[in-house]
Design brief:
The protein is an all-alpha fold. It has helices at 3-23, 29-50, 68-74, 82-101, 107-126. Helix 2 (29-50) packs parallel to helix 5.
């Protein structure tokens, strides 16, 4: 996918996440799980395009991050912050299915998930990735 398409997808996910927070995280846990997971994958892919470490045709799917072992196998490229970013996204992905397909979670757990996602987002932002530009 082109970088511009990743930016649009990230923007959409962030808007939906923000709307879900305003409505109330307890009533939007599935939406939060889906969009945080998708946005994290898009942010990482945008970062790797920014570094020119993957070709434009490569797609990173959220399920690449169901375990660190799988993520490292699917993402053999080296890049700055790789271990930390993968650990964060794997942690996010492990919680995703519980939010998306499990029973209703307490507000505190959903808010902790959102903070975990924000850690991923901030780490990639610190690497110089800009997703607000068109």
């Amino acid at each position: 996918m082109k970088e511009s398409e990743h930016r649009k997808a990230i923007k959409e996910s962030l808007e939906v996440i923000n709307e879900s927070v305003q409505i109330g995280v307890e009533s939007r846990q599935r939406t939060i799980g889906f969009h945080c997971s998708a946005a994290a994958a898009d942010l990482l892919e945008l970062y790797l395009h920014h570094l020119n470490t993957i070709n434009p045709g490569k797609i990173l799917k959220h399920d690449f991050f169901t375990s660190e072992k799988k993520a490292l196998r699917k993402l053999p490229e080296e890049f700055p912050g790789k271990d930390k970013i993968i650990k964060l996204i794997v942690g996010l992905e492990i919680q995703r299915n519980q939010l998306c397909y499990g029973k209703k979670q307490p507000k505190e757990k959903i808010e902790a998930y959102l903070q975990h996602f924000n850690s991923v987002k901030h780490l990639i932002e610190e690497k110089g990735v800009k997703y607000n530009e068109e």
